């Protein structure tokens, strides 16, 4: 569904979005999408509907609800202020756009109360509005990209936007501590990466005033805006020109927007497409994502999901899709000639030992065991404990795969131990460090002594040079001891001239 978000320009002027995350901005845009054409004072969303609009990819409702709550807290902090009928005397009206958010976890719905008095900020469809394609907005990974996108769309007809550097910082809510090097690395570079897929042309020009950057200009060409039409919610936008690889890349970026899509991901997915259908690869990605999100033992879920793809691994699911056999039959028919040179998802799943397989080998007692206190051991002791445990497992079980046993040990036993440096080795290192420190002190003293001696030598040399340069009256050329008229100087005038010349010569 390709939703269009429409704004009255007053909304842009009065709304400053500070400290919003990318997901929270997606929620705000999704809510505005549905509110725009409604006249009611309350709008109802199902969780499923809101997740689709905002491209929410996590499967648990707990984090979804938490993000909704955070979004509302930040919206409630945005107090709008407008002059009222007593404006000349300083009269103002203050309000919030959405007075209440009612979240119903069991019913899986969200009720949003709309301030109907000021609903025109979102709903007015006169010539004074801007259009944002919600899917395009939601696909942007960086918060800075989203905020700049909103600003640039105000100037889409001119194709450029100039900010004073102070205004640019404010509009994009850039931390004050950021220098230009930080802004380039953390703001502009992600923006350039995001906008490759939005604008056919995008250029950043820094305008200097002396050595400092005073303004920043964005040149862009936006050709994706289509005439506004009344469309049904079931409308789908299909790009028929990008092919399976392009469609898969687009699917990855829009379905998992918080995962950094790299060349490595692209190569692995294209390799998968060689021997599997597009829908099957999408299902593979979905399975890996759901596994990563639902496994409580995985701390960094985004990184783990990414590593599964880049490492060409596949978690072993306890279930298969309803059309699994149908899909596999389709692939076998399509790939009979290439089966010896290309790999399938089944090969991918069986080619490597995964974390899921390791956990299946750990007994419930091992998983449930709570390690309350770590034992301090040396590296040598730790390696011996590990080897003894592996040897015992080999005797008591039929599992003799060293790699699997090591991974089971790391998952179930390693947290019991804290590898430390032995006290004698620690003392030895401390002693070595002290010796180095003492050597440095001695070296500093020697350098200081040499510096003093150098100064003394320079002073003596200077005095010696002065003595060597000492001129007398005999060294003066007689031709210099004459007046301007050419007469030979005598008496006091001659003496003054001699002293002046000697003073210059003996400097």
Automatic annotation (TrEMBL):
<dbReference type="InterPro" id="IPR000525">
    <property type="entry name" value="Initiator_Rep_WH1"/>
</dbReference>
<dbReference type="GO" id="GO:0003887">
    <property type="term" value="F:DNA-directed DNA polymerase activity"/>
</dbReference>
<feature type="coiled-coil region">
    <location>
        <begin position="423"/>
        <end position="467"/>
    </location>
</feature>
<dbReference type="Pfam" id="PF01051">
    <property type="entry name" value="Rep3_N"/>
</dbReference>
<protein>
    <submittedName>
        <fullName>Replication protein rep</fullName>
    </submittedName>
</protein>
<dbReference type="InterPro" id="IPR036390">
    <property type="entry name" value="WH_DNA-bd_sf"/>
</dbReference>
<dbReference type="Pfam" id="PF21205">
    <property type="entry name" value="Rep3_C"/>
</dbReference>
<dbReference type="GO" id="GO:0006270">
    <property type="term" value="P:DNA replication initiation"/>
</dbReference>
<dbReference type="InterPro" id="IPR036388">
    <property type="entry name" value="WH-like_DNA-bd_sf"/>
</dbReference>
<comment type="similarity">
    <text>Belongs to the initiator RepB protein family.</text>
</comment>
<keyword id="KW-0614">Plasmid</keyword>
<keyword id="KW-0175">Coiled coil</keyword>
<feature type="domain" description="Initiator Rep protein WH1">
    <location>
        <begin position="5"/>
        <end position="152"/>
    </location>
</feature>
């Amino acid at each position: 569904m390709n939703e269009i978000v429409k704004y009255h320009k007053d909304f842009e002027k009065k709304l400053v979005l500070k400290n919003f995350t990318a997901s929270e901005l997606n929620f705000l845009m999704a809510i505005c999408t549905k509110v725009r054409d409604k006249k009611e004072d309350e709008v109802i969303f199902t969780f499923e509907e809101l997740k689709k609009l905002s491209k929410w990819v996590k499967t648990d409702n707990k984090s979804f609800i938490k993000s909704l709550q955070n979004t509302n807290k930040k919206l409630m902090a945005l107090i709008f202020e407008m002059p009222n009928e007593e404006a000349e005397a300083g009269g103002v009206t203050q309000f919030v756009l959405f007075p209440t958010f009612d979240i119903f976890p069991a019913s899986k719905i969200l009720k949003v109360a709309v301030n109907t008095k000021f609903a025109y900020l979102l709903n007015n469809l006169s010539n004074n509005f801007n259009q944002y394609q919600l899917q395009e907005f939601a696909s942007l990974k960086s918060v800075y990209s989203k905020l700049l996108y909103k600003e640039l769309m105000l100037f889409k007809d001119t194709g450029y936007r100039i900010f004073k550097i102070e205004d640019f910082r404010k509009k994009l809510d850039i931390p004050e501590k950021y220098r230009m090097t930080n802004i380039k690395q953390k703001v502009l570079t992600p923006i350039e990466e995001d906008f490759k897929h939005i604008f056919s042309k995008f250029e950043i020009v820094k305008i200097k005033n002396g050595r400092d950057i005073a303004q920043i200009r964005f040149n862009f060409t936006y050709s994706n805006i289509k005439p506004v039409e009344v469309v049904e919610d079931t409308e789908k936008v299909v790009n028929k020109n990008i092919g399976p690889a392009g469609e898969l890349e687009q699917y990855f970026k829009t379905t998992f927007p918080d995962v950094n899509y790299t060349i490595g991901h692209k190569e692995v997915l294209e390799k998968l497409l060689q021997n599997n259908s597009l829908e099957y690869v999408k299902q593979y990605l979905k399975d890996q994502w759901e596994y990563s999100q639902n496994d409580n033992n995985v701390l960094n879920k985004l990184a783990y999901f990414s590593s599964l793809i880049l490492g060409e691994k596949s978690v072993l699911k306890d279930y298969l899709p309803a059309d699994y056999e149908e899909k596999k039959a389709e692939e076998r028919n399509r790939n009979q000639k290439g089966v010896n040179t290309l790999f399938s998802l089944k090969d991918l799943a069986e080619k490597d030992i995964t974390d899921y397989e390791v956990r299946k080998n750990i007994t419930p007692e091992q998983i449930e065991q709570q390690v309350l206190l770590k034992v301090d051991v040396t590296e040598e002791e730790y390696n011996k404990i590990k080897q003894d445990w592996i040897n015992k497992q080999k005797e008591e079980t039929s599992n003799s795969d060293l790699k699997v046993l090591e991974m089971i040990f790391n998952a179930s036993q390693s947290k019991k131990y804290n590898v430390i440096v032995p006290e004698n080795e620690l003392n030895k290192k401390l002693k070595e460090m002290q010796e180095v420190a003492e050597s440095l002190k001695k070296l500093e003293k020697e350098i200081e002594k040499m510096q003093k001696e150098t100064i003394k030598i320079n002073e003596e040399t200077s005095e010696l040079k002065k003595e060597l340069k000492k001129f007398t009256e005999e060294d003066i050329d007689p031709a210099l001891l004459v007046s301007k008229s050419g007469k030979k100087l005598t008496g006091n005038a001659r003496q003054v001239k001699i002293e002046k010349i000697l003073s210059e010569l003996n400097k």
